[in-house]
Amino acid sequence: MGIIHINKLKPGMVLDEAVKDISGRLLLKKGKNIQSAHIRIFKIWGVTEVNIRGNNGSKNTSDGNLDPDKIAKIKDNTQNLFRHADLEHPALKEIFRISVEFRSQYSFPEKEKQVDLATTESKQDTGNHNFLQELNQGNITLPEVPSIVFELNEVIANPLSSAEDIAQVVHRSPSLTALLLKIVNSPFYGFPSKIDKISLAVTLIGTREISGLALGISVISLFNNIPKEILSMHSFLRHSLACGIISRILAAHKGLPQTEQLFVSGLLHDLGRLILYSYFPEESLNILSRARSTNMLLYLQENDSLGCNHTHIVKQLLQQWKLPMVLENNVFFHHDPCEAPQPVPAILVHLADIMTNGLGIGTSGERFVPPLDNKAWDSLGLSPSCFDIVVKQATHQFFALESMLEI
Ligand SMILES: [Fe+2]
Ligand SMILES: [Fe+2]
Questions:
Q1: How many angstroms does the Cα of residue 327 sit away from the middle of ligand 2?
Q2: pTM given for the model
Q3: Number of domains composing the chain
């Protein structure tokens, strides 16, 4: 049966995963028979979904149906993707195990494939090593802040903003309104009844949270013109959405209160690459083909060719557009999270990016799983045992929100 909404839960069903509240506290152990009292407790503690034992809820059952040769091949391929990661590390070992399982269950055949760069001639490194300097000096022009982003920024910055103020700004864009309502009515929130007004969503979820979501969606939908010969836009958005969802669920497991901020940070974490691909296609193609021929991690290849990487590019944009500081903290530092002024949320995005690359949901151009910052992991205080449920929750939410990628 798998993951079901709390409202569909019935006494007598058996748990296939332990149920924990949003801060990770155990409410009921795996294998327990659910009673009416348990359902009431789950609702009180904000649990929206549980994993129920049944025909397709068990990972062993689904694995058992697969051809062993196919699993061995998936394992081999996944091992190659983890070539820059230390598979002896307990967290990476668990992410690897879950990635093999996930890749055995789901395949994204055509959409996820990167454009074949084999035919793209890798030129000598003609990259612009002063790219960062030119960026800082304003010689490389980044886009101007769009009015809706500017207005959402104002609403977020003003502590007196009301639900109506936000609704007014959001309503100016019908596509943004529709997307926000889709998110608040999806398993991402799991509200029992339909929410049909932005002002109601603001009342239920919070002013800053809804404005933050609106801001993140508005920003990422502005850059929708990656040249096809570089990367599929759909694939890029899948990577971004999955990273946002996983960041938010990890934040809930860590007990952080601002989970929307983590979703938006994950959604925008590789925005610098989107800018690079859209505005500097020639440099981008060269970097991608060089990374392919050297098997180097993409952000290191960017450093090599440009003297900076996608995080420096996005930092410039976040500052120019005066977006909330928390985004700079989480997005700029996602490859180097211990350096962030607030390391914990940056570490969560760092981890979510590793998990998203491992699972293979979309790509931002990177072919490998980025290495885990051991110091960051040690300071986080999460157990790898939570990854299984994190990925299950994330998968469920991802498929429910996938259609929002048609932005
Ligand atoms: Fe990145
Ligand atoms: Fe990424």
A1: 15
A2: 0.82
A3: 2
